[in-house]
Amino acid sequence: EKANPFDFDRSNVQIDYKVYVPQKVELEVINKFGDVFIEDWVGILMADVQHGDMWISDNLNKADVSIKYGKLRAKNINYANIDITNGGLDMDHANTMRLNSSGSNIEIHQVESLEFYSNKDEVDIREIGTLYGNLKFSKLRLHRLKKDIDLNLKISDLWVKNILSATSKISLEQESSEIHINVINFPHVFSATLEEGLVRLPKSFHDVDSKMLDKGKKLREIKAKYGKKGQGHISISGKKGVVLIKEI
Question: pTM score, two decimals?
Answer without folding.
Answer: 0.91
